Amino acid sequence: QCQIHCSEALHCTQRTTTMKLPSIAVGFFLASHQASGFSTNLLSSSSTKQSTSSLNVFSVSGSAGTGEGWIDPSAPVNSAASLQKTLDEALKGSTFKKRISILGSTGSIGTQTLDIVDACPDNFVVDALSAGNNAKLMADQVMKYSPKVASLSTPEAAAELRTLLKERGCTDMPEIVHGAEGIVEAATVGSADTVVTGIVGAAGLLPTIEAIKLGKDIALANKETLISGGPVINPLVEKHGINMLPADSEHSAIFQCLQGVPPGGLRRVILTASGGAFRD
């Protein structure tokens, strides 16, 4: 329950993996303390032809203008070190304890992460929450999880949160902050060991950088962090020795499908267009 939390099944065959997008798989990487990251090194190169409708997992990682392989080391999949780490963490069972900071706590990623916290209360402590302008839902979360830091987008939302908490008789008032600085403060709260980045767009880049610098593991649902900042993020991942794992549904599902797949055991991954921009 704490290790894999997908609402829809993944269908895998020896040569082809076809997947219906799961709602989220946050529990997998949150439970895998210091497990390896998620992007590339996706097995060895292959001459398999890549179609426009599928992802060739054997293709060499790289981005035009930045050079081949720039996305390393966010994602060693099936390297000796990552497989050993996966085994070591699996053998720990449910004895782990993680302290987390959630960026985007009132959104889909954030609320489902908190569902996992509810399901495994002995394994998780919430140290910081950051959200947009939903002060009412944030107040509910603060009353339930007692974070040390609560951040909202605007001064007005932060003031509303403070008022709501006082009206509810909050006896363990968090530090209430706002704006870009508030997100960074939530991401860098001293006691958290893992940061769940569930906020949208480039707003997630700076807090992720600051959290990595402090040695915190990253549960990444903010794709823009690697799309726009990969050449900055990945050297920091390597320098500070942290672990980055995928939280967003498609990426975590692919990551899980690739675990233990031998070279030649998987030809392609097909993603069905079941949500996001394709939905509308």
Ranges where pLDDT stays below 50 over 5 or more residues in a row are: 1-72
What is the helix content?
25-40%
Per DSSP E runs of 2 or more residues, the count of β-strands stands at 12
What Rg do the Cα atoms give?
A: 19 Å
The computed structural class is alpha/beta
Helix and strand run: EEHEEHEHEHEHEHEHEHEHE
**In DSSP terms, counting alpha (H) and pi (I) runs of 4 or more, how many helices?**
9
Query: What spatial order of strands do you see in the largest sheet?
Result: 8-7-6-5-9-10-11
Shape: globular
pLDDT averaged over residues = 75
Give the N-terminus to C-terminus distance in angstroms: 32 Å
Major sheet, described briefly?
7 strands, parallel
% residues in beta strands:
15-25%
What report would you give on this structure?
This protein has 280 residues and is α/β, with parallel strands linked by helices. It is 35% helix and 17% strand. The chain contains 9 helices and 12 strands. The protein has helices at 26-31, 80-91, 108-119, 135-145, 155-167, 179-187, 205-213, 224-240, 249-258; strands spanning 10-12, 16-19, 62-63, 67-68, 98-103, 124-130, 149-152, 175-178, 194-197, 217-220, 244-246, 268-271. The strands form 3 sheets. A 7-stranded parallel sheet has the order 8-7-6-5-9-10-11, with helices on both faces. It has a 3-stranded mixed sheet with strand order 1-2-12, with helices on one face. Helix 7 links the parallel strand 9 (194-197) and strand 10 (217-220). Helix 4 (135-145) packs across helix 5 (155-167), helix 6 packs parallel to helix 7 and helix 7 packs parallel to helix 8. The protein is globular and about 60 Å long. The relative contact order is 0.20. The model is unreliable at 1-72 (pLDDT under 50).
